[in-house]
Amino acid sequence: MKFSDDTDRSSLLLPVHNSTDQTIPSDRTVRLLDTTLRDGEQAPGVSLSPDQKVEIARALERAGVAAIEAGSACTGAGERQAISRVTDLELDARVTSFCRGLEGDVDLALECDVDGVHIVVPSSDRHVEEKVGTSREDNLETTAELVEYAKAHDLWVEVIGEDGSRADLDYLEQLAETSLDAGAERFCFADTVGHTGPERTHEAVSRLAAYGPVSAHTHDDLGLGVTNALAAVAAGADLVHCTVNGLGERAGNVALEEVAIALSHVYDVDTLELEELYDLAQIVSRATGVQLPPNKAVIGENAFTHESGIHTDGTLKDDKMYEPYAPETVGRERRLALGKHTGRAGVAATLEEHGVDAEPDEIAEIATRVTELGDRGRRVTDADLLAVAEDVTGDDRERVVELLDLTATSGGAVPTASIRLEVDGEERVASGTGSGPVDAAVSAVREALGSAADAELESYHVDAVTGGTDAVVTVEVTMMRNDRSVTVARSEADITRASVEAMVDALDRLLATDEKPLAPADD
Ligand SMILES: CC(=O)SCCNC(=O)CCNC(=O)[C@H](O)C(C)(C)COP(=O)(O)OP(=O)(O)OC[C@H]1O[C@@H](n2cnc3c(N)ncnc32)[C@H](O)[C@@H]1OP(=O)(O)O
Ligand SMILES: CC(C)C(=O)C(=O)O
User: Fold this and answer.
1) Rounded to the nearest 10 degrees, how much is the dihedral formed by the CA atoms of 270, 298, 232, 58?
2) What's the rounded Cα separation, in Å, for the pair 326 and 382?
3) Is 305-393 assigned to CATH 1.20.120?
């Protein structure tokens, strides 16, 4: 068990479909094969450099996946170099390559020194006849020959019957039997186009498992990726192919983090070091440029964030009230957000975090005003709340840091910016350079503040509020100092100004509570 809780799992264990033998007992051994570096990379627009593959492979190893499909050696020299970089890491996880049903593909995989190969052969008539242009009989024969070839080269072999969910099940069984008889370690049931449901998956995998070890490769085109993966496991599959953040062809593959948490939470079956999942998700998101959807299970920004008053109040009374499991389980933290649905409990808790005292009637008034701000379609930030609170309580405060002037230039060799700030009543001027004007302006701010600018930039988001090149952009930054974080949003047509104003306001809020916040800039 990676987490202990008081979940009564018997209440979660509904049979996959009306039969009690179709559940997953907690003593089942299930392992996960990650194919982010192969199927995940097949997502349109995604291409990972060798360094990025290495970084992701290391993170997958920390998470404890059993196998990493590092790519398709047949794709080209660059891909082979990337796969070789992963095999060079000598990870505990088995490192494999995709191969078509071609001897040449196996040879290319061998060049990368992989531990194993997935020999992918057609299994539905559409794939056998129309795509590869062979026959069922010849396909069985070449599959057996290829498995023997790969085994003769000491490779671990998994045969994947591509489009298995649309194949004639009798033929799929023959393909599995032929593969395993020829020496393959396992056969994989592939729902290549994500078109099937749990019943068909269960039936197919049960039949295939009678011949030997079975894996499952499910896609999410119908939103059934996890359901089908679990149905496959219930039917006897002991290796599940997944990708981080569910990246992959079309609607993607089944998400690694979703399979891992579902097996753990519902069935008490351990597969991974769950607390590594969020870090892994962020590494993959940064490398691929595919943002994490806010409402995604486990890894989405909102997965452990509570805005509505009833939920916030309930969560503050008992943190399990509106969460299936603790966020720390998957390496995350709980957050309270402010908005249209905020109630008094959420306001009081957030004010307390910022060290602001308010009477119950003032908290009620602040909550009403926060709802009104939210009514205007806006996300309400910490800075908004603190401004409302100051207005309601009449507690005026002196600004610690204020932006007086900003100039930024880009387009030349080195983007530069100069800044004029008022800091504790004294004017400070500084300049900076950076990768772009925003970066240059931010280094100028840090230069002007000296050691007081030790706050970390936790997140930085830009949204275009209107379309066109004259769009107003909203920049939202979250900055953290001494375990306290503040979120500020600013909307401007000028992205550099919006970024600097948001950052300066956040620093101002963070520094305001310090006894003696600011040393001279040259300290
Ligand atoms: C469901 C999946 O995810 S399958 C994996 C998808 N992955 C990829 O496509 C990897 C990236 N692809 C590539 O780098 C290239 O497509 C290559 C190197 C594999 C092939 O490139 P090309 O030689 O230019 O072929 P092209 O991409 O046009 O067509 C694919 C060929 O593979 C053949 N093929 C497809 N699947 C199989 C298979 N399981 N076994 C044997 N041959 C196959 C096709 O029949 C076609 O051959 P043909 O040209 O003789 O008709
Ligand atoms: C190569 C196979 C496993 C695949 O990606 C699929 O069937 O979706």
Assistant:
1) -60
2) 24
3) no
In the numeric block, the tokens 């609607």 are attached to 251
Distance separating alpha carbons of residues 72 and 77, to the nearest angstrom? 10
Pairing of strands 239-242, 116-122: unpaired
Distance between CA 458 and CA 333 in Å, rounded?
A: 13
Residue 118 Cβ inside 6 Å of ligand 1? The answer reads no
Q: For residue range 297-317, list pLDDT tens digits in order.
A: 999 999 999 999 999 999 999
With a 6 Å cutoff on the Cβ, whether 120 touches ligand 1 is yes
Fold designation for 25-288: TIM Barrel (3.20.20)
* pLDDT tens digits, one per residue of 180-204: 999 999 999 999 999 999 999 999 9
Decide: 285 in ligand 1 pocket, CB within 6 A: no
- Encoding tokens for residue 108? 């290319």
Under 8 Å between Cβ of 177 and 213: no
Q: Whose CA is nearest to atom 15 of ligand 1?
A: 75
Domain boundaries, the chain: 25-288, 305-393, 401-512
Protein residue closest via CA to atom 2 of ligand 2: 162
Phi, psi angles (nearest 5°) of residue 239 = -140, 125
**93-104 residues labelled b (16+ CB within 10 A) or e (exposed):** bbbbbbbbbbee
Report ipTM (2 d.p.): 0.97
pLDDT tens digits for 440-463?
Answer: 999 999 999 887 778 889 889 888
Sheet with strand 426-433: strands edge to edge: 401-409, 416-423, 426-433
What whole-number distance in Å separates Cα of residue 148 and Cα of residue 119? Answer: 11
pTM to 2 decimals? Answer: 0.89
Q: In the CATH scheme, what is the code of domain 401-512? A: 3.30.160.270
